[in-house]
Amino acid sequence: MEGNKKMITIYIMGKAYKVPFGLTIMKAVEYAGYRFIRGAGCRAGFCGACATVYRKKGDYKFRTALACQTTAEDGMYLAQLPFVPANREEYNIENIDPDKNVLSEYYPEINRCVSCNTCTKSCPQELDVMDFIQAAIRGDYKKVSSLSFDCIQCGLCTARCPAEITHYHVAQLARRIYGKYYSPIPKHLEKRVGEIKKGKFDKEIERLKKMSVDELKKAYVKRKIERIPRGEVREE
Ligand code: FES
Questions:
Q1: How many domains does the chain have?
Q2: Which secondary structure element, helix H or strand E, spans residue 12, and what is its range?
Q3: Is 22 left (phi over 0), alpha (psi -120 to 50) or beta?
Q4: What residues are in contact with ligand 1 under a 6 Å CB criterion?
Q5: What is the mean pLDDT of residues 214-219?
Q6: Is position 227 within any domain?
Q7: How confident is the model at residue 236 (pLDDT cuts 50, 70, 90)?
Q8: Are 31 and 20 in contact (CB under 8 A)?
């Protein structure tokens, strides 16, 4: 206890620190005196910058997490992975032949997948990573796009893969191909673009431009959001 706070011990790069119970790993690391220069972005589970690996005392399992989304636990041995080296192939999406299995062409290592499922187990978004790699091997762009839709590119799957696959780059290429060549043109988007071009929102934009930062923040929080179920690819 420190004051009224229950304290736990975490280990950062092997060194022990006492931190208050209940903090995220990110806040616990900062409480211990570290400052994130890399390895922190949105702090809200969206950007994938805060990939972390850890073990717990007395537990053989090598675990993965997002530092901003995971509560620090007593006895955690932590290391941040601010960047996972993963080569991304260069391509021009305009020149791709979508009738071929381009994923296998650009990323032939996907065919080395041994179906160990380590990628799925290491995904902090709980995506079926191994399944989308299997779909990639079959050239099923739609399935890869759908299964990988919530990928935040943290790289933890890639860091753990024994076949050295760069899953998130493969999935990104599949989503780009699906979006460009197969996904139906969203009617609502086409309609909205037309309205914008005709100046339907000009007055509203002028009104927003005159607002203070605080007023803008309040308007942002109050805005209407259309929710699309997790993992779904919109079709119209
Ligand atoms: S800081 Fe963006 S996901 Fe954690």
A1: 3
A2: strand 7-12
A3: left
A4: 40-43, 45-50, 66, 68
A5: 94
A6: no
A7: very low
A8: yes
Q: How far is the CA of 44 from the centre of ligand 1 (A)?
A: 5
Residue nearest to atom 1 of ligand 1 (CA): 43
Tokens of 165: 């696959």
Q: Can you tell me which atom of ligand 1 is nearest the CA of 48?
A: 3
Torsion of CA 196, 198, 202, 205, to 10 degrees: 0
Assess whether 14 and 47 both reside in one domain: yes
The residue out of 80, 102, 117 marking a domain boundary is: 80
Residues 89-102: tens digit of each pLDDT: 999 999 999 999 99
Which amino acid belongs to residue 100? K
Q: If you ran DSSP here, which 8-state letter would residue 185 be given? A: P
Each residue's pLDDT tens digit, 150-209: 999 999 999 999 999 999 999 999 999 999 999 988 898 899 999 999 999 999 999 999
Residues 122 and 147 in one domain: yes
Token pair 């997002």 is found at 66
Percent of the chain with pLDDT over 90: 86
Residues in contact with 205: Cβ distance below 8 Å, sequence separation at least 6, in sequence order? none
| E strand or H helix at 7 | strand 7-12
Q: Which atom of ligand 1 is nearest to the CA of 41?
A: 1
Cα torsion 91, 166, 127, 153: sign: negative
Q: How does residue 57 score in pLDDT terms, banded at 50, 70 and 90?
A: confident
Strand segments (E) across 13-156: 15-20, 51-56, 63-66, 76-80
